Queue: 3 jobs
Job 1
Amino acid sequence: MEAVGVLMICRSLLLLLLPVLAAAETLQTYIVQLHPHEGGREAVAAAESRLDWHGSFLERSVSWEQERRPSSRLLYSYHTVFDGFAAQLADAEAAALRALPGVASVRADRRLELHTTYSYRFLGLNFCPAGAWARSGYGRGTIVGVLDTGVWPESPSFDDRGMPPAPVRWTGVCQGGEHFNTSNCNRKLIGARFYSKGHRANYPTNPSEAVSLLEYVSPRDAHGHGTHTASTAAGAAVAGASVLGAGAGEARGVAPGAHVAAYKVCWFNGCYSSDILAGMDDAVRDGVDVLSLSLGGFPIPLFEDSIAIGSFRATARGVSVVCAAGNNGPARSSVANEAPWVLTVGAATLDRRFPAYVRLGNGRVLYGESMYPVKTSLKKGGKDLELVYAVGGTRESEYCLKGSLDKAAVAGKMVVCNRGITGRADKGEAVKEAGGAAMILANTEVNRQEDSIDVHVLPATLVGYREAVELKKYISSTPRPVARIVFGGTRIGQARAPAVALFSARGPSLTNPSVLKPDVIAPGVNIIAAWPGNLGPSGLEGDARRSNFSVLSGTSMAAPHVSGIAALIRSAHPSWSPAMVRSAIMTSADITDRRGKAIMDGDGGRADVFAMGAGHVNPARAVDPGLVYDIQPGDYVTHLCTLGYTHMEIFKISHTGVNCSAVLQKNRGFSLNYPSIAVAFKNGAKSAVLQRTVTNVGTPNSAYTVQVAAPPGVKISVAPTTLSFVEFGEQRSFRVNVEAPSPPAAKDSAEGYLVWKQSGGEGKHVVRSPIAVTWVVE
Ligand SMILES: *[C@@H]1O[C@H](CO)[C@@H](O)[C@H](O)[C@H]1NC(C)=O
Ligand SMILES: *[C@@H]1O[C@H](CO)[C@@H](O)[C@H](O)[C@H]1NC(C)=O
Ligand SMILES: *[C@@H]1O[C@H](CO)[C@@H](O)[C@H](O)[C@H]1NC(C)=O
């Protein structure tokens, strides 16, 4: 109350200054969050009165001299995932607005990016949830909403043969626009919308051109990323899917029976929070069951993170929100989209390889990978070509940036290009433009042995850092170095997989180390899925080839795999909460690879819990987890209280008032019922007690016994050590005591696990939680 009084005084001062300041300043987009309307939500349920309410804030803060109608500054009005709006404001106007009673927060719009490993231009599927399909009817009756670059509706992956009509609860629309109308939706693609206002506002010079020149002002996908992710989650089965002949096989989404709704929020220059929130606001109201977001930024506090804020109420309304963890690995604490109510997904490799060896003139053969179509490549790359590297002697030419290559020096030759700075396919285009005949992409220390491949416009292969060092040594050792690329087609089962992709973002979470993130890993390297039929599979303008499929890598590709699994679980268990769905996916995850050995990291070592969370998703087990850890929306608020968030910070996330001292008094010793266990010891703390509650979703009359592998240097005891259930749906609680007399030398984290093994009944359920202990030095 006191704070409000002070704010009122500030407000009158600021209003006086406004007209002067606003004239000199440019406008930018702000997202404004409001306190619930005094008249209650019912009073503003009608769209008109809601707009009036939102507009009234603008009328009080926008400089009247500049505008005929302050409401012309309004971009979006939000009312499902939170109450508020997005508007274009001068800095001083934003400050004035911030001071108005009823305003909870005003924050600048933020540009986020797609979580593919390189720009937007990318391109597999042999990840078979066969057992899960039978149990869930292939995801029938569920709706997966995909927030991305839109959709290419003509793709065979969105064919609706055999699909039932959209569920009756569905209230979404098929929004028309450039090259898109209602006839583009069907029983598979049941909805499509687009959101460009936030994006346009960032191109003030000629906003309409900035969007329309480069892409369709409609839900139609001009990039391919959205088509790819949507088809990965819930695409129909397409026989004989290949990328220009490579990787041929059946392509189908993880939940081929589920419906898809596309929300286009990303444009050529990225994805703006104001557009993303508008998409989430509609999607939740439209009736999606799962929201898939393959985009994000760097980790920021939850109360400033639009995805965290938008997904809080989405989750409370029963929508499972699945997000990509980001591609800033292997750096520690790089994981984004880390809110405890979302499912955060890292990327793993598949056991499929596309070998394309480099045979050097000295007879040495270096392993490389490529998806260049086999037939043509034999003709073009199959003979010895002169090898060149850094022909201009410049750093730009080492990385094959556009225009950096001397045409006379590269014409007809095989050009070595370092990875980095520009997109991988862009380098291929640069080499081709300069007259080069073939390309070898060379990993640097940064990429090590990471092998995300692309469709290139010329014969090309990608070699690891070790191979790159040998390659460059050879080039400098001989006056006329030569090499040829030998393409090996598609090989399955050649590699140890899954393994964590080097680029996959890692924990511990920067903003909240007491929840382990990422939650799981899923296939995200060299994934073949649907692609706009009018684009070359490289996504580049210079690519005249056409393909209905392409190959892409990134946590962007991993997230929709998990969205598909969530749809399968929702279909099998319609009454489950998002927390139950996530618990099922986490506690059933694999921690061993196909060879039965520990999952490896792209780094070469064993993958730790900060790289893979609970492990690699296993859809067949996830639909029948035995026990689940459920969480009520209010528990997340209590959790935020335990983290010391202020009343106002929590309000920005939960949109409800909370008195943390009262909440904490009522919930002494509270711990969030998360399916993984993360303990962050701060300020020399040596012990912690955690509570967990499991719900029996397996068989009646079942019993479970605990098994614990304590992290090195940590003592863990669990009580009770057995849990018995008579009924289905029954709950049992247990306590986990964690004691760490002293942190292990030279380490700031340690890991272990806790498993509930079913002893009675069919004895088949194994409910596993990873344990992560970190010591935070402050
Ligand atoms: C949608 O567009 C197609 C192709 O332009 C056209 O043939 C069709 O009549 C349009 N349908 C509607 C309902 O406008
Ligand atoms: C892509 O799919 C469309 C629709 O099924 C089909 O007509 C077209 O021939 C396919 N294109 C290629 C290159 O396979
Ligand atoms: C919050 O709760 C505490 C403990 O119940 C109480 O003493 C305090 O007055 C409450 N604060 C507010 C602002 O309501």
Job 2
Amino acid sequence: MSAIKTLLGVVCFGHLTSAVLYSSPTEFVPRDYDYIIVGGGTAGSVVASRLTEIPDVSVLVLEAGISHEGIINSQIPLFCTTLTPNTPYDWNYTTTPQAGYNNRSVPYARGRMLGGSSSVNYQVFMRGSADDWNRYAAVSEDDGWNWNNMQQYIARNERVTPPADNHNTTGEFIPSHHGFSNGSAISISLPGRSTPIDDRVLQTLQEQSDEFPFNPDMGGGDVLGIGWMIASIGHGQRSSAATGFLEPALPRDTLDVVVNSHVTKLVQTGTEDGVPSFHCVEFAEAAGAETKRVCASEEIILSAGSIGTPVLLQVSGIGNRDELTSLGIETIVHNPSVGKNLTDHPLLAGVWTTKGNDTLDSMFRDASLLDSYVTEWTDNRTGPLVSPIANHLGWLRLANNASIFETVEDPASGPNSSHWEIIISNFWAVPGIPMPAEGNFVTITTALISPTSRGELQLVSSDPFEPPLINPNFLSTDFDIFALKEAIKAIKRFMSGSAWEDYIDAPYGDFANANTDDEIEAFVRNSAASIYHPLSTAAMSPRGAGWGVVDPDLKVKGVEGLRIVDASVIPYMPNAPTQGPVYLISERGADLIIADLDDSIELC
Ligand SMILES: Cc1cc2nc3c(=O)[nH]c(=O)nc-3n(C[C@H](O)[C@H](O)[C@H](O)COP(=O)(O)OP(=O)(O)OC[C@H]3O[C@@H](n4cnc5c(N)ncnc54)[C@H](O)[C@@H]3O)c2cc1C
Ligand SMILES: *[C@@H]1O[C@H](CO)[C@@H](O)[C@H](O)[C@H]1NC(C)=O
Ligand SMILES: *[C@@H]1O[C@H](CO)[C@@H](O)[C@H](O)[C@H]1NC(C)=O
Ligand SMILES: *[C@@H]1O[C@H](CO)[C@@H](O)[C@H](O)[C@H]1NC(C)=O
Ligand SMILES: *[C@@H]1O[C@H](CO)[C@@H](O)[C@H](O)[C@H]1NC(C)=O
Ligand SMILES: *[C@@H]1O[C@H](CO)[C@@H](O)[C@H](O)[C@H]1NC(C)=O
Ligand SMILES: *[C@@H]1O[C@H](CO)[C@@H](O)[C@H](O)[C@H]1NC(C)=O
Ligand SMILES: *[C@@H]1O[C@H](CO)[C@@H](O)[C@H](O)[C@H]1NC(C)=O
Ligand SMILES: *[C@@H]1O[C@H](CO)[C@@H](O)[C@H](O)[C@H]1NC(C)=O
Ligand SMILES: *[C@@H]1O[C@H](CO)[C@@H](O)[C@H](O)[C@H]1NC(C)=O
């Protein structure tokens, strides 16, 4: 970018008077900004917040969804299960028929409001293993992404808060592994309510410590074992990118946010240093509505997520030339990696019925009881509704002598990283499948953490409002089906411990018939779904690599003016649900943007 542009955009900035949250494009009169952020989701909110901490840097956020304000179900932690799929807060995607799932399509939830998926997710909060980040550094050839360098962003990004019930958390986590930020940050906490299975889990960890060791804190780089869950919940309420980052930034008169604004096109505005430059975007409230255009002197930041970002790149002419041409889209940059290499964590829940009724299920069936808990939550931010989806989770490996390793190289990110995950909930916690009318349940959710399957997104037309074909290609490799089957066998061993004898009745539904190897395989293929962690559709790769969509500084390859900061740039699945890694990518992404700004200020 030129010094002149920076001079106009930054130093001579001063035409805005106050920050505004516009409820639609119709109300909004486009002006010029230093930065435009596409998508006010998890990453977009962090970047907007960090950039506007710099005086005089002006930022516009365009968000397709609604405002998060006043959406009570998004605030109440345990109501996370009601927010998706197929609700006003969801993009309502589904996958293509998955061959590995016996041709079933499964829901593919994505948040559609300020805060994005962090406003609708299940609030499990982790950041992955040291191995994961060291792999990101190795794959991108940028040591800045390694575990040691990312520690500064952990400190800045999170704020440990007391659990809602104020219990003594000694022994449940290791404070030095965590951030106690005083600024804009995501609030995190240990479970705010004990459950009748907490002690049974801990007893099982003692009795079967070889297979299921206790991990005193999975935030320090070594994730292996089972421990207490940390969630993005503060003072009994969901902490999202909207509440943790956008809200504190909104009073700044350098930030404008427009909701109900779907960005439909990245507009090429010229050529700079021999490559196409993009400094404007077009947006509209809905298909057929009036389209507006707005421009940024510095950069357009794409934070539309693993689905939205590659769709927008492609409808704007950045993608595989053959595919774009067949849809009548003029190619500006031929890049066959856009939308490819989609990866995700397959999810599979094993459910058991319980002998008694001391689970959260009863409450969900008793409207007046539930009402009283909503009142308690509203008045005091206490009671069962402050609960995260589980009080314990863990990260586990296949045995070193597992037969699959005779033919397949271990795909885990390192020796201290897992192949599969376990989440232990004292209620029916099966995403997308409603609770049965009767019964009380314990759910052990498993997820395959080191998948080797890769899928893709495919546009079906040049229309930016048209959902793409989403094919995660679940369980398409021998390793993936092997590992998820082993996870199912392992959770049965976990539940066979003496701690559960008087509590658990029997496996429920098809899970009850999954005993032989073939039956387990049938159960896996008939019942697995997604834990909603799509990544890698605009992956980072080394500068000059023959694949990948962004350089390690997150700038889009082959163009000027575009950067991507969201889940799509992460090249491999982490040992974590994905919000934590996205938050950390966003913190460093904001630093990289600001570093370039500082350089150009020196030019002035
Ligand atoms: C139901 C569910 C449960 C999950 N549970 C967990 C969990 O427990 N723990 C965890 O760590 N992770 C969880 N995740 C995953 C995690 O929330 C996501 O990986 C992460 O939030 C993604 O961040 P992002 O910034 O890449 O995308 P998002 O947060 O999804 O943000 C993208 C934003 O861009 C907007 N957008 C898209 N296209 C456009 C466009 N063209 N114009 C304007 N705006 C656009 C979207 O509306 C959205 O607000 C879950 C996700 C879901 C959906
Ligand atoms: C998703 O489905 C819900 C429920 O039918 C609907 O209200 C919402 O508008 C849909 N969202 C989109 C983006 O189509
Ligand atoms: C899935 O669909 C493919 C293609 O239509 C077909 O060949 C295959 O037999 C189907 N598999 C199952 C299990 O139905
Ligand atoms: C919490 O428990 C630990 C260990 O049992 C104890 O040392 C500590 O004093 C307790 N803290 C408070 C505030 O009670
Ligand atoms: C937050 O503020 C407290 C009290 O001022 C201070 O002790 C602590 O170091 C600060 N934490 C961070 C991460 O800045
Ligand atoms: C997918 O990622 C791998 C590296 O993990 C890379 O070698 C390959 O070229 C990528 N494929 C595409 C189409 O980008
Ligand atoms: C739960 O079981 C107890 C007996 O153990 C019974 O008194 C109570 O009514 C039951 N509650 C519900 C909601 O079924
Ligand atoms: C809120 O807390 C107060 C003080 O502990 C208590 O008296 C009140 O009953 C609580 N409200 C509800 C609805 O539980
Ligand atoms: C792996 O080793 C264990 C003993 O450590 C043994 O019990 C088991 O049978 C071995 N499994 C295989 C597949 O060889
Ligand atoms: C794995 O973790 C152990 C224990 O925390 C540690 O000693 C070891 O160095 C780690 N190994 C690697 C390769 O990171």
Job 3
Amino acid sequence: MKNNINWNNYALETQAVRAGQQRGFENEHSIPIFATSSYVFESAEDAYLRFTGQKDGNIYSRFTNPTVDAFQQRLALMEKGERCLAFSSGMAAIMSLGMSLLKAGDHIVSSRSVFGNTILMFENYFGKFGVSTDFVKLTDLEAWEAAIKPETQFLFVETPSNPLIEIADIKALADIAHKHNCLLVVDNVFCTPVLQTPLELGADIIVHSTTKYIDGHGRCIGGAIIASDELIEKSFYPYLRTGGATMSAFNAWVFLSGLETLAIRMKGHCENAFKLATWLEQQPHVVKVYYPGLSSHAQHKLAKEQQRDFGGVVSFEVEGAKEAAWKLIDSTELLSITANLGDVKSTIIHPATTTHGRLSPEVRAMAGIKNGLVRISVGLENIDDIKQDLLRGL
Ligand SMILES: *Cc1c(COP(=O)(O)O)cnc(C)c1O
């Protein structure tokens, strides 16, 4: 393998395994972990040139690190973006949207169905510095457009959403955003670039929690932003370098190996999730199944157009509300009771009393999160063992 391959000529699966590596003088086959906080200059003049940006090169690992660079290059290619910047967590990446792009008096429009901490970040922290947010229903395009003001800087959406797996129309939202001189930010955690590449649909910025499917084995916390070279260079990188929420070299190394198996894992997650969703639909005590691969799903057609497959998360509502949902969860012996998702291990959670438990009952009802709702992040175990485990409590 040469160091100067043009990776744009290769498919996602190949980029995922090989892109980003700059082989060093040891001819190592695997990408090394550069466990170093700083870098040595050749001379005083070299130090001066690098510090003033007149010469490329590493200075300090809060700014750049070769292992993190390899991860960034690989993920940027897979997302069809110009550049990627890695962060210490998904939330650190979301916070960087505010620190890099917003000022007091600005406004954002966000889907109501986004990660709970994202809502808190917008309301409590961006809000504290004079940025206001309006929350809208992700499928209601008119509501998105009506919420835009002259001060609006970006629209923020997560699709598919959690836990009801609703699908937002990325192309239509990008058109609305651009018509009003705003950016569209898409949280692509549920699909990953294997199933959906929002930049190709018109989005401007991708946000990732690499903690989920990109790691895939529930080991490390991390995040990323993918955007144009200009946005990264002028807005995000100067903030990250100063703000300091950088990804560690060790975590980047773990995520690099996660990317290598991402395509094949996503295929397995989707296959298992589809089988589980169709099986759940036939169970007598299941009231409703939420999975975009089912023809009963309200945005099944849109999901088919916009995504390459339907993802690994399935939610369903059981008869008997909270009591029945808790009983089902407690009857499992295999599934892990945890809020994490995107793991090779299947996980099960009761959203109304955990991930969405801080919402008031009215807000929860408006969001459609019923007390009988159970969410499963379908892992890579044998599907019959997963079904058997659920049958105990169903
Ligand atoms: C987990 C998650 C986040 C936050 O990421 P962290 O790595 O936990 O900080 C943001 N968005 C979505 C959709 C997530 O699932």
